[in-house]
Amino acid sequence: MGPFRTCDPPHTDSKVGLRYAERGIKLIRYECDKCGKALTANDSDRYVVKIEIYAAAGPVELDLEPQADPGAELSKVLASLSDIHPDELEDKTYRLFRFDVCDRCRRELLKRPLGTQTAERPSR
């Protein structure tokens, strides 16, 4: 998953491949993250899909009494967050995914972005 993968140079038996291998250079290899089809950097069949997930909470409203200690209130909030693993906290607030897909998989994603048909959606 991701924008690209590094791989050993193909055709290391060729002069070009050997030059890359001798210098320790890795080539970038693109493939569809959904079906695995090989793609190239400038392929007209290559599309980028980004999925951004973030908390939809509104602004935080603080009801601080005039005599309240803001430092103590902040300490309480930080203490409550110390019990949560940093990865879990990040998952609950913001995540960004980036995928390379081929044209066929792009068309599938446009039809069913969440992986289910509209008819399968549970009633509310």
Q: How is the biggest beta sheet arranged?
A: 3 strands, antiparallel
Instruction: Give me the oligomer status.
Output: single chain
Largest beta sheet: strand ordering: 1-2-3
- As a whole number of angstroms, the C-alpha radius of gyration is 24 Å
Count of structural domains: 1
Amino- and carboxy-terminal Cα gap: 34 Å
Count of DSSP strands: 5
Coarse morphology: elongated
Low-confidence stretches: 1-14
Helical content band: 25-40%
What percentage of amino acids are in beta strands? 15-25%
Put simply, the count of helices is 4
Walkthrough of the structure:
There is one protein chain. The chain is an alpha+beta fold and 124 residues long. It has one domain. It has four helices and five strands. The protein has helices spanning 15-22, 70-81, 86-93, 103-111, and strands at 5-7, 27-31, 38-39, 46-54, 94-102. The strands form two sheets. It has a three-stranded antiparallel sheet, with no helix packed on it. The longest helix has 12 residues, at 70-81. It is elongated and about 65 Å long. It starts with a strand and ends in a 13-residue tail after the last helix. 6% of the residues are buried. The model is unreliable at 1-14 (pLDDT under 50).
